[in-house]
User: What shape does this take?
Amino acid sequence: MVKANFKASNKGEGEYREVQIFDNVDKIAAANSRYIEDLKTARDAQTQLDSQYIQDQQAALKRGLDSQTTESKFLSHF
Assistant: This one.
């Protein structure tokens, strides 16, 4: 949105010229909204990556524990 104001001159024949004042509030608000949505998307993606990493680590720990349990059972027969 552009607001048009007029500025008068007291010199000469009193010329008037248009002075444009730019109101960028709507553009700034839209850019801020997009930025916030981008941050939310990045946060959600990072949360998914972290969740998958935790699941992978838990599975690796379980495999290690299962391996130790199997080895202990095998060695207990001797």
